């Protein structure tokens, strides 16, 4: 009897288990097996940025080097130099002597005149005192050009024109010669070399104006000159000429 009860209990348990299985939802057939994604990844943009060259051929932007600049100078073309003169000497411009132009006031200098400005006038233009003077290669109308007309000064006004080329007329009281015999001071005032206003000839200038004999012949005469007024730290106010053409008249 007990055996029958045990067998019946097992049978009843199996029936209950089967019923439970039937009620539980089955995922068989719907399961998805995981596989790694082997699809190619999107290509990352690793290209270096470069400005677009599109339209460069039609660009209206232009670039130019400032003078101040440059030791090479500025390239010019087709300038008519007729009627223009070296601002220092007053000589007609000659391309063969080398041309330089002040970029502030547009006056011109020959190479030798510019060298004198560098040595005696701190490289300053005699017209506007700018130091922005550059070499001219060729010639051009593009920058234009201007002639320089010196101011006429007297013994009462010459100090107001230091660093400028002027025209001066005065009577020579005496001619002083330096101890080494290479430099001369034509004195417009009856004062010492240091204190009086004078016309000074240095070594090269002595040769160009005709030598010591010509300079000594100016004593007692009325002389009109074109030259650069400077104040020498030791010898005071003087006027410098470099060419005989700068001695405008002698009476």
What does this structure look like?
There is one protein chain. The chain has 251 residues and is α+β, with helices and mostly antiparallel strands. Among the domains are: 65 residues, Herpes Virus-1 (2-Layer Sandwich); 100 residues, Beta Barrel (OB fold (Dihydrolipoamide Acetyltransferase, E2P)). Helix content is 18%, strand content 23%. It has four helices and twelve strands; from the N terminus they run αβββαββββββααβββ. The strands form two sheets. Strands 5, 6, 7, 8, 9, 10, 11 and 12 form an eight-stranded mixed β-sheet that branches. Strands 1-4-2-3 form a four-stranded mixed β-sheet. Strand 2 and strand 3 form a beta hairpin. The protein is rod-shaped, with a radius of gyration of 48 Å.
């Amino acid at each position: 009897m007990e055996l029958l009860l045990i067998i019946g209990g097992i049978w009843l348990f199996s029936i209950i288990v089967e019923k439970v299985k039937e009620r539980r939802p089955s995922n068989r057939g719907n399961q998805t097996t995981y596989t790694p994604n082997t699809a190619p990844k999107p290509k990352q943009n690793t290209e270096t940025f470069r400005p677009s060259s599109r339209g460069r051929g039609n660009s209206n932007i232009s670039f130019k080097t400032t003078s101040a600049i440059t030791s090479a100078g500025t390239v010019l073309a087709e300038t008519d130099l007729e009627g223009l003169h070296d601002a220092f000497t007053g000589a007609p411009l000659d391309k063969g002597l080398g041309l330089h132009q002040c970029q502030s006031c547009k006056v011109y200098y020959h190479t030798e005149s510019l060298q004198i400005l560098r040595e005696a006038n701190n490289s300053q233009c005699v017209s506007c005192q700018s130091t922005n003077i550059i070499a001219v290669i060729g010639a051009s109308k593009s920058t234009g050009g201007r002639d320089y007309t010196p101011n006429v000064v007297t013994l009462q006004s010459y100090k107001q024109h230091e660093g400028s080329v002027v025209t001066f007329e005065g009577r020579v009281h005496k001619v002083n010669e330096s101890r080494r015999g290479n430099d001369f001071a034509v004195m417009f005032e009856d004062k010492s070399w240091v204190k009086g206003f004078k016309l000074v000839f240095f070594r090269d200038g002595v040769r160009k104006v005709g030598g010591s004999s010509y300079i000594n012949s100016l004593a007692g005469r009325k002389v009109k000159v074109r030259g650069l007024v400077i104040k020498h730290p030791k010898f005071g106010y003087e006027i410098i000429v470099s060419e005989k053409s700068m001695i405008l008249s002698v009476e």
